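Here is the promised in-class demo. Please do not try to memorize the tokens; focus on the logic of going from shape to residues.
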């Protein structure tokens, strides 16, 4: 911190803007944005198309990461009108806590409780539940194993898994490289124990680093010598490679924690280290012009994918349009999505711990929605939430495939019932298309949902209940102000574009 303050250019106003415009303050107390000198990422112009406006490419014959697409019988769970589809498990924010202790205090005064060191509950107070707790408490191993077993038993036809990071618990005052390494490896072992033959594509969470949230720019040689995250990038790259033994993930994984992998012919996943845009990564006060050069790298990968006729899904921990990502970086990402909206067919993130959907709009035509960012809710109960997992359905391999996201189902465990009656049943929380009355999951249909929610308070309350995973302490807490925040955040997360909500900042 001292190094950043002494050598960085950021001033007290910028520091205020970083802290008080994060997700911790949904309504910022100051009308500030974190900005330094204007900067932009070079984005190549599209190659002119023919008379039809379409560009045809033939993808080269390459081996597939997915050994065999599952042959699926008729199912009431999902149908793609007889065409193949991919069933994708998204795990996010597992926050495995090896120190979790049933019966310990849930009100210990620390950022995380329910641990052996949290002490005993006060007289009349309940202790930490066996399966997790609504207090500031992370995931006990018994909960993690039960969730993975439920997924394995009920969804044996998963084609691949995306895991968008945050394996480490919230006890940040006890972190070390050694402890983080041990937990990261433990989570990797659990995933491979339950899904030994299923490809897993991972992304890097902000809790994995030590110190937490610290992602110095590796392109600065002096900083890299003193504060390098090389140990973390090598650790994660080794784990990601073990998840995908049949391919070589790109070398960028060991440089900046990002990588690209071809899942099937014509279908690529890019794992992006968005922790470089995190407002609590103090290194952005030292260098905020594309730290890590990850946006420049992303543009190159997308251009190569476009040239080869590949469709792309992007996964990361922090969604670029989320309030925790600083505004200039957000806008540059919006520019990239606007340019490559025909190539980017899905975006999947975590970090929020709740269900959120944020829409990208064309920077040249701000009324036109061009992308959807799915913030998948957390596997951990932290904080006041039920644990959950989410399945996405993606257009599969066939001649007219778009690799579009077709639907999603989220499952949850009610902690009250689990702890009171040992009723460990994972229920379907909602299906996006059915329960939100969406024609498709394309950006214009989500935009239409926002219009409907703006006019229908009950629909917005329903969305909020899904967002907090039917938490017994949060599901009914959404007043007019809460509903307004939900609607406005979905459509105007890019603060550089014109506001879409009346009387909003």
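The designed amino acids, position by position:
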């Amino acid at each position: 911190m001292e190094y950043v303050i002494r050598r960085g250019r950021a001033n007290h106003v910028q520091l205020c803007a970083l802290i008080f415009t994060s997700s911790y303050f949904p309504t910022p107390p100051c009308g500030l944005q974190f900005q330094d000198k204007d900067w932009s990422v070079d984005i190549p112009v599209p190659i002119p198309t023919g008379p039809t406006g379409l560009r045809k490419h033939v993808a080269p014959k390459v081996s597939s990461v997915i050994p065999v697409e599952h042959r699926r019988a008729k199912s009431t769970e999902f149908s793609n009108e007889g065409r193949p589809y991919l069933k994708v498990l998204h795990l996010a924010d597992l926050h495995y806590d090896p120190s979790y202790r049933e019966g310990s205090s849930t009100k210990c005064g620390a950022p995380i409780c329910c641990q052996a060191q949290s002490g005993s509950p006060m007289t009349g107070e309940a202790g930490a539940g066996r399966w997790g707790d609504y207090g500031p408490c992370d995931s006990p191993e018994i909960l993690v194993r039960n969730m993975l077993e439920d997924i394995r038993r009920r969804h044996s036809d998963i084609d691949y898994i995306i895991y968008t990071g945050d394996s480490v618990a919230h006890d940040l005052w006890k972190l070390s490289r050694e402890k983080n390494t041990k937990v990261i490896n433990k989570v990797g072992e659990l995933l491979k124990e339950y899904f030994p033959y299923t490809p897993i594509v991972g992304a890097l969470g902000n809790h994995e680093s030590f110190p937490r949230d610290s992602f110095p720019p590796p392109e600065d040689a002096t900083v890299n010598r003193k504060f390098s995250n090389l140990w973390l990038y090598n650790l994660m790259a080794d784990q990601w490679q073990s998840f995908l033994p049949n391919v070589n993930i790109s070398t960028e994984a060991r440089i900046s924690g990002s990588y690209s992998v071809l899942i099937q012919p014509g279908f690529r996943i890019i794992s992006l280290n968005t922790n470089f845009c995190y407002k609590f990564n103090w290194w952005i006060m030292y260098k905020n012009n594309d730290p890590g050069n990850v946006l420049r790298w992303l543009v190159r990968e997308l251009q190569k994918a476009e040239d080869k006729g590949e469709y792309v899904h992007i996964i990361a921990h922090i969604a670029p349009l989320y309030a925790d990502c600083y505004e200039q970086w957000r806008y540059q990402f919006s520019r990239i999505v606007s340019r490559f909206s025909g190539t980017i067919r899905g975006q999947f993130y975590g970090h929020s711990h709740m269900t959120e959907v944020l829409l990208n709009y064309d920077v040249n035509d701000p009324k036109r929605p061009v992308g959807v960012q799915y913030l998948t809710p957390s596997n951990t109960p932290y904080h006041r939430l039920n644990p959950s997992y989410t399945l996405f359905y993606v257009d599969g391999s066939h001649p007219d495939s778009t690799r579009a996201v077709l639907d999603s189902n989220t499952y949850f465990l009610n902690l009250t019932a689990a702890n009171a009656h040992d009723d460990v049943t994972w229920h379907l929380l909602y299906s996006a298309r059915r329960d939100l009355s969406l024609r498709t999951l394309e950006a214009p249909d989500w935009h239409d949902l926002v219009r409907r929610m703006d006019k229908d308070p009950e629909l917005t309350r329903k969305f909020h209940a899904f967002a907090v995973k039917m938490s017994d302490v949060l599901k009914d807490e959404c007043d007019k102000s809460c509903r307004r925040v939900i609607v406005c955040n979905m459509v105007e997360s890019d603060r550089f574009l014109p506001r879409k909500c009346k009387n909003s900042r």
